[in-house]
Amino acid sequence: MRVFKFGGASIETTERVENMGSILHDYMHEPLLVVISAKGKTTNALEEIASTYFQHQESKSIELFEQLKLNHQVYAQTLLKEHYIDIEEKLQSIYIEVDWILNEQPVRSYDYYYDQIVCIGELLSTLIISHYLTITLGPTAWIDIRDIIKTDANYRDANIDWKLTSELVKSQLSPLFKQCNIIITQGFIGSTDENNSVTLGREGSDYSAAILANMLDATSVTIWKDVPSLLNADPKIFPHTVPIEEITYHEVIEMAFYGAQVIHPKTIKPLQNKNIPLYVKCFLDKHLKGTLIHHSDTPIKYPPILVLKTNQTLLQVTTKDYSFITEDNLSTIYKLFHSCKIKINLIQNAAISFVACIDSHAAHLDELLQLLSDKYDVKRNEHLFLFTVRHYKQEVLREELKNREVLLTQKTRQTIQMVVR
Ligand code: ASP
Ligand code: MG
């Protein structure tokens, strides 16, 4: 059994869905679980609906939602033609989940509403696509993964209940393969034990594919992307990139940790645990070799791997009472970051100050600054980049740092990290 994951870009247009159909056609002689994201930029659009709703701009949120419905209607009609009518009612039943919310005042947390609203992107795309595939390829099964992937109530970054989910995979999902070879489901979403919807963090569909592959003991996972393979750097930022044909789980985790937007960082562990190989392949040309991510006993020689994280802020936290930044203060500061769900990308500490590099758009930043201001003075430096090079070579660094000012550097044998302007 294989698991395929198709992201938003791979199904953005109806031509791309047709192309996806031709890829699946090559593999449909054996059981295949297909995990799909919301199409194109739907998740961003839903995020805006959630935020306008929460800011009490009801008519704005309703208007945006009507646009989103229309956009999906056109997409579905183009793909399904006269068969559109077969799913119209099902689409309505998905819209209703959000209509109800938008017509009432918010009384719970933003993160809760975010998940109830944003989760429908994947429900819509999978419903439309599975119907299209049934018409063109033969029977497929569609499953609402919220009935299978069970989590805690940590909205927007929910944690999987591995035991319960695994039981549900075995009792509800596996048996569907007796009826047909292709099962279509959603990435990115799940639900709590009270059946509230949750999401697993932006770009979380890769992670969903890995969770399900782990529990189904899949032979492999393939992520279909718009690039020929993994590269040693983002080609939109760095002009000279080289492809990586083979890479270990460990190296990919490192890349993702430093901010390379290759694969969702949580994806690797469930695969590594069961030694399931992960392929990255190009949906624009299915014949290209792509990249194999797996465990390898023989060391692989890598080119320098470059990661540039944009929109970074440096926070300098200094004790007001001149107390040292040791275990005591560190644990206080860490707890505050953790309680505000702010991820630290790099830290450095000195006698009475602690420096953290974080994403400038972190959701609860104001709250964090407020909490810190009791005991600490906080200075902020904005518009920065976090530049990481694995397997670095001096000439690469010289070249890349030509026009940049370095504010902070941290270095190990394999990795160098710099906060730059
Ligand atoms: N649709 C979600 C997002 O855009 C999940 C994903 O694409 O993996 O973040
Ligand atoms: Mg995506």
Architecture overview:
The chain is of the alpha/beta class. It is built from 13 helices and 18 strands. The strands form four sheets. An eight-stranded mixed sheet has the order 3-4-2-1-7-11-12-10, sandwiched between helices. Bound molecules: aspartic acid and magnesium ion. Magnesium ion binds near residues 7, 8 and 203.
Short description:
By secondary structure, the protein is α/β, with parallel strands linked by helices. It is built from 13 helices and 18 strands.
Question: How many domains is the backbone divided into?
Answer: 2
The percent range for strand residues is 15-25%
Radius of gyration: 23 Å
Q: What name does CATH use for the topology of the largest domain?
A: Carbamate kinase
Query: What general outline do the C-alpha atoms trace?
Result: globular
Q: In which range does the helix fraction lie?
A: 25-40%
Largest sheet: 8 strands, mixed
Mean pLDDT: 96
Spatial strand arrangement across the major sheet: 3-4-2-1-7-11-12-10
- Cα end-to-end separation: 48 Å
Instruction: Quickly give the structural class.
Output: alpha/beta
Task: Assign the CATH architecture of the largest domain.
Answer: 3-Layer(aba) Sandwich
Q: What is the helix tally?
A: 13
Low-confidence parts lasting 5 or more residues at pLDDT below 50? none
**Number of DSSP E strands:** 18
Catalogue the ligands.
aspartic acid, magnesium ion
Highest CATH level, the class of the largest domain? Alpha Beta
